[in-house]
Amino acid sequence: MKIYFALATLLLLTFSTKTASAQEDSVQGTQARQQTGPPSTPLRDRFFFGGSLGLQFGNYTYVDVSPLVGFKITEKLHAGVGVTYIYFKVKDSYYNYSYETSSYGGRVFGRYYILDNLFAHTEFEVLNMEVPDEIGGTGNFNYVRDNITSLMVGGGYAQSIGPNAALTLMILWNLTEEQFTPYTNPIFRIGFSAGF
Predict the structure, then answer these.
(1) What is the DSSP string of 30-58?
(2) What single DSSP character describes residue 25?
(3) Domain span including residue 10
(4) Which residues are registered as beta bridge partners of 189?
(5) CB-based contacts of 160: which residues, under 8 Å, 6+ apart?
(6) Is there a single domain that holds both residue 124 and residue 173?
(7) Nearest CA to 174 among 119, 127, 129, 131?
(8) Are residues 72 and 13 part of one domain?
(9) pLDDT at 121
(10) Domains in the chain: how many in total?
(11) How many CA atoms lie within 13 A of 31 on its CB side?
(12) Same domain, 31 and 121
C-alpha cells in the first residue's frame, strides 16, 4: 500500500510541475507572439509529401512503393506517416522454383535537422509479410503471414532541387533486426520530398 501511495504522490507532483511549467510556457509563448506577430509560415505550407520507389526486374523482381506525408512542427523538427507496399517475385528455371509475394504496412517517423541539409531520423515500421513456418518438424515449410516490426535510426542529407522540393539520402540502422526482417543493416534510402 505504501508503494501505491508513493507512486500516486510522485505522479501528482510530476503532473503539477508539468502543469505549472506548461502554463508558464503558454504565458511566455503568448507574450512572444504578441511581440513578433503571427507565425511566418502558414499552416498549409508546413505539410510536405514524398517517399521512395525501388525497382528491380529480371529473375528477381522487386517493386517497393513507399509514399509519405509529413508536417513541419518547427523549422528543424518534422514528423509524419507513410505506407509501404513491396512486391517480390523470384523465378529460378534451374531449380524449377518460383515464388511470389506482397508485403504491406505503415510507419511513423521523426526527423530533426541538425544543420540546413543534415538531419537525424528515427522511424517505426510494421510490415505484414509472408514468413516460412515449419510443418511439425518435417523440414517442409508453409508460408504464413506475420507482422514484422522495425525500429530504425540514422541520418540523412537533403539536397534542394527547387524552391519547395528536395532529394533525400539516408543511412539507417534497424535496432530490432530479427530472423525475418526484410532489411539488412545498414539500410540505404533515396527519396524525395516536396511542399504543397
Answers:
(1) HHHHHHH-S-SS-GGGGEEEEEEEEEE-S
(2) H
(3) 1-38
(4) 170
(5) 117, 166
(6) yes
(7) 127
(8) no
(9) 97
(10) 2
(11) 6
(12) no
Q: What is the pTM of this model?
A: 0.69
Task: Tell me the mean pLDDT in the region 22-30.
Answer: 46
Q: Indicate whether 63 pLDDT > 50.
A: yes
Residues 19, 102: one domain?
no
Q: How far apart are CA 170 and CA 157, in angstroms?
A: 7
CATH code assigned at 131: 2.40.160.20
Cα–Cα distance measured from residue 10 to residue 48, given in angstroms and rounded to the nearest whole number: 40
Neighbours of 15 (CB within 10 A): 10
Assess whether 34 and 48 both reside in one domain.
Answer: no
Q: Which three cell numbers stand for residue 130?
A: 509472408
Same domain, 88 and 151: yes
- Look at residue 39 in the predicted model and tell me its pLDDT: 54
Q: How is 62-81 classified by DSSP, letter by letter?
A: EEEEEEEEEEESSSSEEEEE
Check whether residue 66 and residue 126 sit in a common domain. Answer: yes
Amino acid at 154: G
Cα of 4 vs its chain's centroid, Å = 37
Could you give the CA distance from residue 85 to residue 106 in angstroms, rounded to a whole number?
Answer: 9
21 and 101, same domain (yes or no):
no
